[in-house]
Amino acid sequence: MNVIETKDLYKIYNSTQVPVHAVNGINLIIKKGEFTAIVGPSGCGKTTLLNLIGGLDSPTEGKVFVSGNDLCSLKSTRLIDFRMHNIGFVFQSFNLIPVLTVKENIEFIMQLQGRSRTECNQRVDELLEAIGLPDKKNHRPNQLSGGQQQRVSVARALASKPQFILADEPTANLDSKATNELLELMEKLNQEEEMTFIFSTHDERVMKKARRLVSLDDGKIIKDLSL
Amino acid sequence: MIWRISWRNIWRNKVRSLTVMMAIAIGLTGGIFLTGLMNGMSAQQANDAISLEISHVQIHHRLFADNLSAQFLIEDVAGKLEVIRKDERVRAFCSRTKAQAIASTATTGAGIIISGIVPEMEKEVTTIYSKIVEGSYFEKENKSASIVIGQKLAHKLKAGLGNKIVVTLQSLNGEMSYALFRVGGIYKTSNTRFDEMNVFVKSDDLNPVLGIDPSQTNEIAMLTASHEAAIPVAASLKSSFDKLSVENWRELRPLLVVISAMTDQFGFWLIVIILLALIFGIINTMLMVILERKHELGMLMAIGMNKKRVFKMILLETTMLSLSGGLVGLFFSILLMGIFGQTGINFAAWAEGLEAIGYSSFVYPFVSARFYLIITILVIITAIIASLWPTRKALKLNPAEAVRSE
After folding, report:
1. Strand residues in B157-209 grouped as ranges (E)
2. Are residues B304 and A84, on separate chains, in Cβ contact within 8 Å?
3. Exposure check for chain B: N or C terminus, fewer CB within 10 A?
4. Which of A77, A95, A107 faces B299 most closely, judged by CB atoms?
5. Which residues of A touch B305 (CB under 8 A)?
């Protein structure tokens, strides 16, 4: 099943006098359960591509389909709702809500989705167990290490039971131990729950773990390797 | 959850939030206290006017008020008083003869209004007896008739206790009549103009001079259970005595009503202006908040917070911040009103000026519960207005860019 499909995707920025083709005609299909890394040098269009796939930005041309839904046809409110229900985000700088505890951060989206309290509590416990931080339930983000915070943000992304998780350079701010732990966690979730992961990275360690490597340069796919 | 986030967000930068709260609290306390002072002054003026001069309800001949002439009489006083006595809402009543006159001493003279009273009944209705500063209120029997005059008039006439005063007035048959009184008491109220104009003698001493019969009088005054009760009492007496003029205190002194209404308005606008100034402080703070949390807001929008929820979050944060300051302000105001409402504030330094325009120099500030409620609502409205601009700024953020901003 295709989770993501992009068709002739272009994103052109006209902010400078010379138009920048950040994404330059990308056709990409990602199937359920993939563990895909989008790689390439800085400025090659990794983040722009992830933003387009995540519905955070709209393409200049082309289409993005998520489970058959055309993201470009959705109005902004519907798009936000769509993101909430279908896409999990993991950001480079963790981006947890600092005033909420670990538990509250994880259940935040579920509450936005209108899930019941019992369901939220149960899912939070499950996820905390999965990321190996059940004892940090009532800690605030600033009481956790970077690696722990990123694991919580993976749990938050998973909480809404999305179709896939987009992770934009998730290990960029982590040391090697935390990077390994995070990758192991993502791999485990990918294998056990069949969760689809797409991450952008230029971290060798991440690339080694990926099962598909999509290399970009100048906004184009230059190599697509299944490992 | 959004409520929880908003509340906790306020305390992320404690110093900044507390600064805004203190500004609101101090602004409101100042505004409320000033309003309380003005209320206190105008209520004091109304209370003084009622307890010293006009009482709650007065009855006159229809033409009496036009020229204060003793010839416009109420007949069958005893019958009228009987009707009034039967009304349970009336707390006390008295009758007076009243005339314009000239009071003279050996040195000078002055225009006055002389009231012929029955001291025992008068004491039930007015509080002049408690304002005696020298002598007594018709307690000592003298050879010649006693007169109680205001301190201001005493100074003007250079008349001391026991001195003679000659009162010249026109009797009912149009002749000039004279009567000799000795100063038996000197009073002082907080209204020097009243003190200068009004003198009191026993009606038994005044009536023969005027040629008024004991069954006649010029004025019947009464106190009712409360200021408000005067209105229905006057209305029902109006129907009982349809040939006479029956007026409640609002009709007798429309100015008191105007002053009280003006004070209310003034207080309201004072608070509005203070809040208007505070809006800018709140906007500034909230704009800083948005700027600082760009990253976080972008993330929230990315993961699924829609515009409505972002708006709600910022609105709640602004409202909670403002309302916290507002509640502190209300708390201090209630505290100050509680203390000074009991002890009063003495503006002794300005006593002379205040008393010349009929205000007491001792003020008991107060504001109504309704006013506190209005202020609470105004603070909420202020917060809503103040949150609009910062919210607009937040909603304009592009989540993709905001998330990556450092």
Report:
1. 164-170, 176-187, 198-202
2. yes
3. C
4. A95
5. 80, 112
Question: How many residues does the structure list for chain B?
Answer: 406
Q: How far is CA B57 from CA A196, B115, B219, B229, in A?
A: 88, 17, 10, 10
Q: Which residues pair with A87 in a beta bridge?
A: A164
Which residues on adjacent β-strands are paired with residue B149?
B186, B199
How far CA B251 is from CA of B65, B218, B233, B379, in Å, comes to 12, 18, 13, 37
Which two structure tokens, joined as six digits, stand for A225? Answer: 């390797």
ipTM of predicted complex: 0.89
Nearest by CB to B304, from A80, A93, A104: name it. A80
A22 pLDDT more than 90: no
Task: Give the model's confidence band at A35: pLDDT under 50 very low, under 70 low, under 90 confident, else very high.
Answer: very high
Are A126 and A159 in contact by the 8 Å Cβ rule? The answer is no
B344-358 confidence digits (pLDDT tens): 888 877 777 777 776
Q: Alpha-carbon Rg of chain A, whole angstroms? A: 17
User: Tokens at residue A27, please?
Assistant: 């056709």
Q: How far from A95 is each of A170, B217, B303, CA to CA, in Å?
A: 11, 89, 11
Give the mutation candidate from A42, A57, A95 for the B interface (greatest B CB count, under 10 A).
A95
Distance CA B190, CA B319 (A): 45
Give residue A158's identity as a one-letter amino acid code: L
Which residues are within 8 A (CB) of B202 and not within 5 positions of it... i.e. 6 or more apart? Answer: B116, B117, B118, B119, B138, B145, B146
DSSP E strand stretches across B225-328: 245-248
Residue B134: partners with Cβ closer than 8 Å, 6 or more residues away: B160, B161, B185, B186
Indicate which of B4, B7, B303 best probes the interface with A, i.e. most A CBs within 10 Å of its own CB: B303
**Hey, what domains does chain A have and what are their CATH numbers?**
2-226 (3.40.50.300)
Nearest to A62 by CA among A22, A27, A14, A13: A27
Beta carbons within 10 angstroms of residue B163's beta carbon: 16
